[in-house]
């Protein structure tokens, strides 16, 4: 690929129509958690009766809970083959000496029971410190006895466990990812749970929809669509799929990004022929142009910590590179100085790091890198001989979603922020441009 690649990125939507018609000494070390990970035993829930329905529901819960805690990246889960034969259901069942023994060596124990009551699936979930015998969590969850309800209960329990003994940061098991998929023959916006379950379309324009981004409170998703002819920006509400037009018209309007306070939106527009970065309120008022350079300026993202800085991509130096400016467009500085093509920045929730996709040599491929914003030191997170692009952070700063063609067609993956535990989430069609939601309120 040549510089044309960046124009494919910058004029993404226009190029989609064309497509349809035819290591360094400057590195840092990233750790998801500091120190030794807590050793956690996760015992299967014990059924209160022997019904087939309860057994099936409980199995789903057990599997999802284990998967959530394993993907969290903050625990060492003790294999279940080491557990005592009789698993606890209630506090009086716990024999602490068995769980702290040399054979098991647990520091924390997750256990509980399940039953069906009044047409609901009920879980009593507990977390205990087996050394101090202190009860940490004792929650009851009542949900509809279907897979969606059961999984949601497991996600909530997992997030609570992660919050209590995983460093005081909530887990992301209840979050969602938006993405672009062509599985129905058109490029539509889809959503799914963070682990890939429940993939469903948000839009049904039967056209081209691209560059989705969640609002700060998760109530709507902004994206670019061609469904009315011109590549314009739209909002679609998540809960009732209500379509809201954005009033900025003319040229290409794309790569939206909501400000952390939810009051403003940054985007790229070619209303003056050259794609430039703008910000406005959500009704398109108080429009402010941030960039004025010749070439393409695109892909703005806000610093979630300050709400004042914006990273974006520009080819003003000849090849696409990442720059940072304030929300007045005054203080502009280049972040990557070693050449190549650096695109698709995403700011970590704590404001300390930027992840981006970087092709360091013209003959190479795009890989995902992580940069310390203060020192500009970086580390490479992917190195599998494929194109790995469009990385985005999870709200806990511990995970990254991205797209990759490592197995052929482009699909959505997630990994821990240190580049480990890479998991493929999509398989059907071509899936690109992930956007990770913020936390949902239960």
Describe it for me?
The structure is a single chain. Residues 1-31 have low confidence and may be disordered. This protein has helices spanning 4-10, 12-21, 52-72, 96-99, 147-165, and strands spanning 38-42, 46-47, 75-77, 108-117, 120-129, 134-143, 176-181, 188-193, 200-201, 209-214, 220-225, 232-237, 243-245, 253-258, 264-269, 276-281, 288-289, 297-302, 309-314, 321-326, 333-334, 341-347, 353-359, 367-372, 378-380, 388-393, 399-404, 411-416, 423-424, 431-436. With 442 residues, the chain is mainly beta. Helix 1 crosses helix 2 and helix 3 runs parallel beside helix 5. Helices cover 14% and strands 37% of the residues. It has two domains: 4-32 and 174-436, TolB, C-terminal domain (Neuraminidase), CATH 2.120.10.30; 38-165, Rossmann fold. A hairpin with a 6-residue loop joins strand 7 (176-181) and strand 8. Strands 1, 2, 3, 4, 5 and 6 form a six-stranded mixed beta sheet that branches. The radius of gyration is 23 Å and the shape is globular.
Summarize the structure.
The chain has 442 residues and is mostly beta strands.
- Calculate Rg over CA atoms: 23 Å
Oligomer designation: single chain
State mean pLDDT (0 to 100 scale). Answer: 91
Second rung of CATH, namely the architecture of the largest domain: 6 Propeller
CATH class of the largest domain: Mainly Beta
Helix content: 10-25%
Q: How many distinct beta strands?
A: 30
Distance between the termini: 46 Å
Number of domains: 2
Q: Report the sheet with the most strands, covering strand number, pairing sense and barrel closure.
A: 6 strands, mixed
Could you name the CATH homologous superfamily of the largest domain?
TolB, C-terminal domain
């Amino acid at each position: 690929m040549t510089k044309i690649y960046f124009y494919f990125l910058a004029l993404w939507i226009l190029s989609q129509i064309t497509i349809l018609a035819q290591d360094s000494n400057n590195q840092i070390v990233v750790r998801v958690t500091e120190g030794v990970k807590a050793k956690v035993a996760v015992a299967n829930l014990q059924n209160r009766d022997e019904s087939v329905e309860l057994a099936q529901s409980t199995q789903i819960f057990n599997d999802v809970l284990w998967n959530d805690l394993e993907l969290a990246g903050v625990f060492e889960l003790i294999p279940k083959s080491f557990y005592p034969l009789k698993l606890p259901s209630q506090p009086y069942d716990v024999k602490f000496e068995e769980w702290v023994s040399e054979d098991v060596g647990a520091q924390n124990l997750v256990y509980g029971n399940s039953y069906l009551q009044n047409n609901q699936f009920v879980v009593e979930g507990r977390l205990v410190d087996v050394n101090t015998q202190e009860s940490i969590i004792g929650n009851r969850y009542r949900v509809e006895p279907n897979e969606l309800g059961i999984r949601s209960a497991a996600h909530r329990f997992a997030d609570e466990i992660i919050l209590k003994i995983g460093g005081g940061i909530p887990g992301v098991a209840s979050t969602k990812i938006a993405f672009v998929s062509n599985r129905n023959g058109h490029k539509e916006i889809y959503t799914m749970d963070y682990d890939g379950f429940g993939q469903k379309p948000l839009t049904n324009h039967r056209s081209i929809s691209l560059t989705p981004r969640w609002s700060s409170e998760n109530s709507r998703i902004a994206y670019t669509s061609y469904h009315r002819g011109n590549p314009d920006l739209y909002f679609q509400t998540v809960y009732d799929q209500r379509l809201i037009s954005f009033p900025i018209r003319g040229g290409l309007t794309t790569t939206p990004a909501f400000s952390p306070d939810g009051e403003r939106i940054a985007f790229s527009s070619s209303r003056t022929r050259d794609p430039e970065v703008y910000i406005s309120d959500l009704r398109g008022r108080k429009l402010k142009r941030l960039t004025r350079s010749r070439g393409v300026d695109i892909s703005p993202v806000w610093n979630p910590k300050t709400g004042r800085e914006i990273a974006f991509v520009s080819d003003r130096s000849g090849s696409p590179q990442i720059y940072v400016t304030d929300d007045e467009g005054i203080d502009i500085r280049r972040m990557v100085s070693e050449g190549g093509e650096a695109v698709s920045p995403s700011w970590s929730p704590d404001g300390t790091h930027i992840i981006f996709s970087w092709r360091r040599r013209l003959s190479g491929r795009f890989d995902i890198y992580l940069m310390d914003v203060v020192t500009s030191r970086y580390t490479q997170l992917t190195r599998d001989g494929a194109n790995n692009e469009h990385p985005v952070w999870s709200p806990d700063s511990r995970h990254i979603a991205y797209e990759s063609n490592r197995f052929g067609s482009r699909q959505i993956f997630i990994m821990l922020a240190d580049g480990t535990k890479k998991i493929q989430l999509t398989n059907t069609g071509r899936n690109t441009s992930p956007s990770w939601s913020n936390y949902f309120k239960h």
